[in-house]
Design a protein that fits this description.
- This protein is of the alpha/beta class and 318 residues long.
- It has two domains: 166 residues, Bordetella uptake gene, domain 1 (D-Maltodextrin-Binding Protein, domain 2, 3-Layer(aba) Sandwich); 99 residues, D-Maltodextrin-Binding Protein, domain 2.
- α6 links the parallel β5 and β6.
- The longest helix has 22 residues.
- The termini are far apart.
């Protein structure tokens, strides 16, 4: 009994000592999407801002694929010491595990340090298709059922579910072409391999400004200040199809609470960094800094919401 108590005390002391010294070496931040997309922008901007305050390098590693399950699963299996972190999304944590069997628990397999940002998505189309408005898109889809195709950043993400919501609300049907991230998806819309997409504004904005993509509508309750002439989906006549991507900072379950709190507090401090704030504002990304408890509750609520949505769309795993 005494030996057990002593062992517990020693283990606790070691854990506290490790947490107090954290971090004393480089930290890996896994982005479960391809390089060049909006998640990559968030991951690299967040990494640069974190390392200023943590005093150690924060290295971004891209592990795309599987509806974000490859990178998410990698972090779930990592040592819970705060040195392997995840830029998480609803796709990896919630939707993919609801749609198919995964080797990890997307909610209980993680210690959520914070929810750091949110970004609505934009409905865009290749200009060569001759579609100029949402009503014209719906008319074309009804006239040529099953012919139009849309690209997404992967199965289960906001860019996929946003398009599914749009189809459900507008009573149309497109062919879904999933990619391992927003960057390859948008490249194929620009190149004409696919017709349209609902992607994060940060991914599509440069191509919209260049005239290589046409923005039809914004999937939010208000217009984007970056494209004030583009209507919301509701303004364009499609109700109930708003969609956004959220990003979390998550560690493997079992990570010491002191380390989780350190990371959460650091995210809050990062949000005051003017360079970081400017980059996020330029990408139409809304900053957040939820506490570990609030972040956990946020993800649990999203899981319940997505379970209902996927059930409605017939996408829940059998």
């Amino acid at each position: 009994m005494i030996r057990s108590l002593l062992a517990a005390v020693v283990a606790s002391a070691v854990s506290l000592s490790s947490a107090a010294a954290y971090p004393d070496r480089p930290v890996i931040l896994v982005n479960p999407y391809a390089a060049g997309g909006p998640a990559d922008v968030v991951a690299r901007s967040l990494a640069r801002a974190l390392e200023k305050r943590l005093g150690q390098p924060v290295v971004v590693e891209n592990k795309p694929g599987g509806g974000a399950s490859i990178g998410t699963g990698f972090v779930a299996r990592a040592k819970p010491d705060g040195y392997t972190l995840l830029l998480g999304t609803s796709a990896g944590h919630v939707v993919t595990p609801l749609m198919q069997k995964t080797v990890y628990d997307g909610v209980n397999g993680f210690a959520f340090c914070s929810v750091v940002a949110e970004q609505p998505i934009m409905l865009v189309v290749n200009p060569a298709r001759g579609i100029r408005t949402v009503s014209e898109l719906i008319a074309r889809a009804n006239a040529e059922p099953g012919k139009l195709s849309y690209g997404s950043a992967g199965v289960g993400g906001a860019t996929h579910l946003g398009a599914e919501l749009f189809q459900h609300a507008a009573h149309v049907q497109f062919n879904h072409i999933p990619y391992a991230g927003a960057s390859p998806a948008i490249n194929d819309v620009v190149g004409g391999q696919t017709d349209l997409a609902m992607l994060n504004l940060s991914a599509s904005l440069p191509f919209i400004r260049q005239g290589r993509l046409l923005a039809l509508a914004y999937a939010s309750d208000k217009r984007s200040p970056l494209l004030p002439d583009v209507p919301t989906l509701a303004e364009a006549g499609v109700q109930g199809a708003d969609a956004a991507t959220w990003y979390s900072l998550a560690a493997p379950a079992g990570t010491p609470a002191a380390i989780v709190r350190t990371l959460s507090d650091t995210v809050r401090a990062v949000n005051e960094d003017p360079d970081y704030r400017r980059v996020m504002q330029e990408q139409a990304i809304a900053l957040m800094a939820l506490s570990p408890q609030d972040a956990q509750a946020y993800v649990v609520k999203d899981q319940a919401d997505m379970r209902r949505l996927l059930g409605t769309l017939g996408l829940l795993a059998k």
